[in-house]
Write a structure and sequence with these properties.
Rossmann fold, alpha/beta, about 300 residues, 4-stranded parallel β-sheet
């Protein structure tokens, strides 16, 4: 007859061999990655695959500009094996959170190596602050992906080959996305490549693809613009015959709607700037976000 100790050992081994137990072990073994916001989390998932468990501090449709970390966020950061941030001044609250959590994980600045452009609002104030929205250029996101791949490989050398293969496949998709955007914008008459948006989030897209984005001066995602700034935009729409204005998923839509009523410009739809949507929305991934924005722009600007 088997001893009680041996019986328990055989039972434990049998349980360990079950699919449920193996799945639990695999989840436990995954590298815990905390990304500052939803777009970065999606990039990490595309590179890390099943070897990582990714958590976004600012989730779908969340506004990182005005985000207030919670005690739960502090615990997540403290438990992370890697923290991924955008940098370029985007997450003003992140350094305080990392310090408060006494986090020991390395912090990857995903935008490292990107050539920053001056923030349009800062330039108006003769300020040197960079524009943080570098992911609006696909070429910049390719740098993000390379940085994420290398950081994951440093922390998890056994997975370096898997990370390299996943990154290469994703970079191929990004190359196709970049070409699709350039080809579609090239078909829009140059005189119609001007739009109004709620805040200055699309400067990198403008530089990369040739559509001019205008937002009320001094307007940001977390502040009301002055009446003078709004009046300037209304005048600009009328004098330059700007065909469309666009809402954004992280900005109160009422101002843009009012500008559209005042000028007669059409509301071209909603653009996704700083956050993904949930899985049932039109932009649950970065590639989906860029393709949605492209379709929305083309539909509004094409003659």
């Amino acid at each position: 007859m088997l001893s009680r100790r041996r019986s328990l050992g055989l039972l434990a081994a049998a349980l360990t061999a079950t699919p449920i137990a193996r799945a639990a072990q695999e989840r436990t073994a995954r590298l815990k990655v905390v990304a500052s916001f939803s777009i970065l989390a999606d990039l990490v998932r595309n590179v890390g695959g099943d070897r990582v468990a990714v958590d976004a501090l600012v989730g779908p449709d969340g506004d990182a500009h005005v985000y207030e970390p919670s005690p739960a966020d502090s615990r997540r950061v403290a438990d992370a094996g890697l923290i991924v941030v955008n940098g370029l001044g985007f997450e003003g609250w992140l350094d305080r959170l990392v310090a408060a959590a006494a986090a020991r994980a390395p912090v990857l600045v995903a935008s490292a190596g990107v050539t920053p452009r001056a923030d349009d609002e800062a330039a108006m104030r003769l300020d040197a602050a960079p524009d943080p929205h570098a992911w609006q250029s696909v070429a910049n996101v390719k740098r993000y992906v390379a940085n994420i791949r290398d950081a994951l490989a440093r922390i998890d050398p056994a997975g370096a080959g898997a990370y390299a293969a996943a990154a290469a496949a994703y970079l191929t998709r990004l190359d196709a996305l970049d070409r699709a955007i350039k080809d579609a914008v090239a078909k829009i008459p140059s005189v119609r490549r001007r739009v109004i948006t709620a805040h200055q989030a699309f400067g990198y897209f403008a530089d990369a693809y040739g559509i001019a984005f205008v937002a009320p001066q001094d307007m940001s995602a977390d502040a009301e613009p002055s009446a003078r700034a709004v009046a300037r935009v209304i005048t600009q729409i009328r004098t330059q015959h700007i065909p469309a204005v666009f809402l954004e998923n992280v900005v109160d839509p009422r101002l843009i709607a009012a500008i559209a009523r005042e000028t007669g410009a059409r509301i071209g739809g909603t653009l996704y700037s700083d956050a993904l949507t949930g899985p049932d929305g039109p932009a649950p991934t970065y590639v989906d976000l860029m393709r949605h924005n492209l379709r929305t722009l083309v539909a509004a600007l094409a003659p």
